[in-house]
Each structure stands twice: as structure tokens, then as C-alpha cells.
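Could you join me in thinking about how sequence relates to backbone shape in a protein? Would you write everything just below, so we can both look at the same thing?
***
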Amino acid sequence: MKQRKGALIIWPAYLDSKLSRSAGRRIPVNLGAPDVTVDMLKQAADMRNLRAEIEPGKRYPRQNVDRGGYLVLENPEGHKKQRLLLMLAKGVRKIVAERIAKQQAAAQKKKSKGYRKKKNRRKRN
């Protein structure tokens, strides 16, 4: 890992609402999102116009299994890490909400197609 002045390391576990504080979460549960990935963090940083870089293949020290990597976030304004985490959390929640809405729309579309087929059939005696 390169040392970068003014850059912060953001692990996905910091924003994961399924984890406890002792497991690595750093924000309140109601502000987090379930199953946060590095790609979600990158999208959230892009939404906030923050320069970020993904370091893939790294393992969070408190978790033995996942090797998702982390996000290196440039911090030229010198914001505190907690403030940046809250900014990213807002973007991650928006991304998760969009994904859920897409899944529900797809499920509704699939469900409505079957309904139309049944409705158009006539009973013959």
C-alpha cells in the first residue's frame, strides 16, 4: 500500500448495517446499508464528486473470509473521516434503494405478465 498524504482508507465494513460496532461498523445502524461492497463505495464517492481509488484483493483485519478490498479516498479539504463516512453512507443508501426498486419492478413486471395471460383466456363449456 502506498502512503498518500491526505488520503483515507474506507473499508466496506464501516458502512455495513449487518455488522456490529465491535465487528467494524463505524456509523449508526440506521444510516448504514446491508452488504456494502467496494463498488458501491466507489459509486457513492463518484456521486459526491470525491476522487477515490479501489484497492482490490485486500482483507479487512476483523473479517477472515471476505477479500473485497478497500477504497482510498482523497481528502484535499481535510474533512474528518466520520463526516466522509456519513457522506458516503448517504450515497450507498441511495444505490441500495435503486437496486431494490429495480428488483421490485422486475418482480412486479414478471407477476403482471402471468396475470394478463390468465385474464385473456376464455372459459369454454
Summary: The helical segments are 38-47, 81-120. The longest helix spans residues 81-120. Residues 7-99 form a domain with the Phenylalanyl-tRNA Synthetase; Chain B, domain 1 fold (CATH 3.30.56.30).
